[in-house]
Amino acid sequence: MESLSNKKKVLEQKPLSFMERMYLPAIAKGMGITISHLFKKEATIRYPEVEREFSTNFRGMHSLKRDENGKERCTACGLCALSCPAEAITMIAAERKPEEKDLYREEKYAATYEINMLRCIFCGLCEEACPKEAIYLDGPIVPADYLRKDFIYGKDKLVEAPLEMKK
Amino acid sequence: MDSAFVIEKFILVAVIFGISLVIAMYSTYAERKVAAYLQDRLGPDRAGPFGILQPLADGVKMFMKEEIIPTSSNRFLFIAGPGLALLCACIGTAVIPWGSPVLIAGKTIPLQVSDINVGVLYIFGVVSLGVYGVMIGGWASNNKYSLLSAIRAASQNISYEIAMGLSIIALLLMTNTLSLKEIVDQQHGWRWNVLYQPLGFLIFMVCSFAETNRAPFDLPECETELIGGYHTEYSSMKLGFYLFAEYINMFVSSAVMAALYWGGYNYPGMDSMAVWLGPTWAPLFGTAVFFGKICAFIFFFMWVRWTIPRFRYDQLMNLGWKGLIPLAIANIIITGVVIAIIEKF
């Protein structure tokens, strides 16, 4: 059939020439190529000791942010949980007591806040849904673990360190 | 036969056996490292510094694995197969001369377990026995893939043994002896046989690749066609024995190649070194040179493995029967004519 695109090439299968049938020149050439790779720099990054540099929009582990006074921003509105396509986020809201004024920014806060890292797909929709700029996926890679229950991260692992500790 | 002789030989056997096992063990590590570096990777580096404990970890893994013997297999032969493969691989080291005699505590000790006058034939016999381990294992598994692989291994070994034997005949025409010790001693200094028999060496080397079932002739364990090959049904240390036997075979055939063609423990300037180092250390230095040559050959085996793709089975047979055997016969004729001319004039 006639080719419409003119890109078709018909390959002829010629019998091997004497040099090709000897295999040795081709083998020597191939050996030269492989030995040259012995002296090239290896592409491997020794992961736990050395980490690859991430791009600026890399999405890693979540962190729950504090405001400029060190109060937790999250008000447990549940929009992140609602937006989560993997249903990885759950939380229980509680009312702030007067003496906890320095801990939480608004009257309502998340008493427990859990993200199941095995369910999370790191899409960043929680980040986009949050009206209080309380959650960001700006952490490192979530480390491996042995038990499923250990992948459910609570507030102890998610909330940013308090301001004094950061300084 | 006095007891000192028995003890001396026993120690020598134990040392050689230990060295060949350790070299085979570290060949597995070297293979992975060489493969990695040829492919711009790092290779195993977790167990110990630079991963040098990796062979131990692999050994422990092999022993801990569940051992499965298929119910429909021939139990006795199934167990005998890997044992035979390893045994045949190990006994090949008995006739290899590791060095010239060493003077230790006023006694001259030859660094060779036994200098039999048909050493070359012994090596050939042992190497061709090695295929029985593969054959028995493949047949006893009662698995069609294993059997197919065993048949492949057998026919491949038989085909390449002919070319190997013929390439050796040209060498024997030159050396007039079958004793490995004498062949090595004739190559004193720079008179290595590879300089007189380059074609013979090339044929011999290609055939050793086929005999040890290494790439590019590793058709018996060709995963894409035969699952795992003859060791498909094997698990645990029995599989380990098969894999180990391959590396010991590689070590032995490297040693044979180095001894027959590359001068064994001879090196240029060995006479002045013998005067300088004395009768104890000079032979041991020669042994170290010999091991250096062996390691170079082992590296070459690995280098080839990670370069050349596997041959197709018809290509393998064509190369063996139509390529190497006529070449080897031509080599014999040329060598014979040249020797006749030299003797005449």
TrEMBL record, chain A:
Biological process terms from the Gene Ontology for this record are:
aerobic respiration
Coiled-coil stretches noted in the UniProt entry, renumbered to this chain:
none
Entry cofactors: [4Fe-4S] cluster
Residues that bind [4Fe-4S] cluster 1 = C74, C77, C80, C130
The protein's enzyme class: translocase
Q: How does it sit in the membrane?
A: Peripheral membrane protein
Kindly list the GO molecular function terms attached to this UniProt entry: 4 iron, 4 sulfur cluster binding; iron ion binding; NADH dehydrogenase (quinone) (non-electrogenic) activity; quinone binding
State the UniProt keywords alphabetically.
4Fe-4S, Cell membrane, Iron, Iron-sulfur, Membrane, Metal-binding, NAD, Quinone, Repeat, Translocase, Ubiquinone
Q: Does the keyword Iron-sulfur apply?
A: yes
- Cofactor binding remark: Binds 2 [4Fe-4S] clusters per subunit.
Query: PANTHER family this protein is in?
Result: NADH DEHYDROGENASE [UBIQUINONE] IRON-SULFUR PROTEIN 8, MITOCHONDRIAL, NADH DEHYDROGENASE UBIQUINONE IRON-SULFUR PROTEIN 8, MITOCHONDRIAL
Q: How does it assemble?
A: NDH-1 is composed of 14 different subunits. Subunits NuoA, H, J, K, L, M, N constitute the membrane sector of the complex.
Family label: Belongs to the complex I 23 kDa subunit family.
Could you identify this protein by its name?
Answer: NADH-quinone oxidoreductase subunit I
UniProtKB/TrEMBL annotation, chain B:
Transferase found in the keyword field: no
Q: Which UniProt keywords apply?
A: Cell membrane, Membrane, NAD, Quinone, Translocase, Transmembrane, Transmembrane helix, Ubiquinone
- Entry's localization field: Cell membrane; Membrane
* Membrane-spanning segments: 6-26, 76-99, 119-140, 160-178, 190-210, 239-262, 282-304, 324-342
Task: Tell me the GO BP annotations in alphabetical order.
Answer: aerobic respiration
For this UniProt entry, the molecular function terms from Gene Ontology, in alphabetical order, are: NADH dehydrogenase activity; oxidoreductase activity, acting on NAD(P)H, quinone or similar compound as acceptor; quinone binding
May I have one GO cellular component term?
plasma membrane
Enzyme Commission number, as recorded: 7.1.1.-
**Reactions accelerated catalytically:** a quinone + NADH + 5 H(+)(in) = a quinol + NAD(+) + 4 H(+)(out)
What is the membrane topology noted in the UniProt record heading this document?
Multi-pass membrane protein
Q: Name the source's superkingdom.
A: Bacteria
Describe, as the record does, how this protein assembles with itself and its partners: NDH-1 is composed of 14 different subunits. Subunits NuoA, H, J, K, L, M, N constitute the membrane sector of the complex.
What the record says about family reads: Belongs to the complex I subunit 1 family.
Describe the task this protein carries out: NDH-1 shuttles electrons from NADH, via FMN and iron-sulfur (Fe-S) centers, to quinones in the respiratory chain. The immediate electron acceptor for the enzyme in this species is believed to be ubiquinone. Couples the redox reaction to proton translocation (for every two electrons transferred, four hydrogen ions are translocated across the cytoplasmic membrane), and thus conserves the redox energy in a proton gradient. This subunit may bind ubiquinone.
Q: What is this protein called?
A: NADH-quinone oxidoreductase subunit H
| Naturally occurring in which organism (per UniProt) | Pedobacter ginsenosidimutans
